């Protein structure tokens, strides 16, 4: 989401403003100290945009970045997406004037607010329809990934006796979550006994797990080869 916002701000303001995205590899180059780079940008920025979802508002870095902006008395704008709205923001984010990303006219308002902060005129029309379509596609993938993370967490909670291979498998899956939106997704069922099966023959299904087939297949094939008597992980 940050990269979508960044790209459109730079295009609409003709690259008159530098946009730092703390989660973007291009904003923090290889070899740089992550915290130091973020801190330096917080010290010199003139406006902070906070991208809020049910997951991100629980992360400590949000309070860290907002606190830095609050102490410097610079504008902080929460933008809600995917699975949260402004009405559901917790304190202190709900004390700030933010908006829901899909609300018509708000992206245009954001661009003009930034232009005002850097004291430039912008006459370029904001094609909100195209931007919102791109954001809608992102939100779709984001919510799939969030669902996967929650289901993986639930599997781990219901499976205290995970062996080393299975735990390693879950760790690998988590590391590859970003690739899910680019590749084919495979559906599994996880069962009350803590196993994962390619079929739904279990007597009690706890839920459905969607995994990246490309990243998962070789691990699963290796497991089946060494455990021919069972189809459970």
From TrEMBL:
Family matches, as Pfam families: TIR_2
Enumerate the spans annotated as TIR domain.
17-103
Q: What is this protein called?
A: TIR domain-containing protein
Q: Per its UniProt record, what InterPro entries does this chain match?
A: TIR_dom, Toll_tir_struct_dom_sf
* GO terms under biological process: signal transduction
Looking at the record's lineage, which domain of life comes first? Bacteria
Name its species. Answer: Commensalibacter melissae
């Amino acid at each position: 989401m940050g990269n979508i916002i960044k790209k459109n701000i730079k295009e609409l303001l003709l690259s008159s403003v530098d946009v730092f995205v703390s989660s973007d590899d291009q904003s923090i180059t290889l070899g740089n100290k992550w915290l130091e780079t973020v801190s330096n940008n917080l010290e010199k920025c003139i406006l902070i945009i906070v991208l809020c979802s049910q997951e991100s508002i629980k992360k400590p870095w949000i309070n860290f970045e907002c606190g830095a902006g609050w102490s410097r008395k610079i504008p902080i704008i929460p933008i809600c997406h995917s699975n949260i709205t402004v009405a559901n923001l917790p304190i202190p984010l709900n004390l700030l004037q933010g908006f829901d990303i899909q609300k018509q006219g708000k992206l245009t308002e954001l661009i003009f607010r930034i232009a005002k902060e850097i004291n430039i005129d912008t006459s370029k029309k904001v094609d909100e329809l195209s931007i919102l379509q791109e954001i809608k596609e992102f939100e779709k993938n984001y919510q799939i990934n969030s669902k996967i993370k929650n289901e993986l967490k639930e599997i781990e909670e219901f499976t205290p006796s995970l062996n080393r291979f299975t735990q390693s498998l879950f760790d690998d899956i988590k590391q590859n979550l970003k690739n899910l939106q680019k590749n084919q997704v495979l559906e599994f069922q996880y069962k009350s006994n803590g196993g994962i099966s390619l079929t739904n023959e279990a007597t009690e299904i706890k839920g459905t797990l969607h995994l990246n087939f490309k990243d998962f297949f070789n691990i699963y094939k290796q497991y089946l080869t060494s455990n021919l008597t069972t189809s459970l992980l």
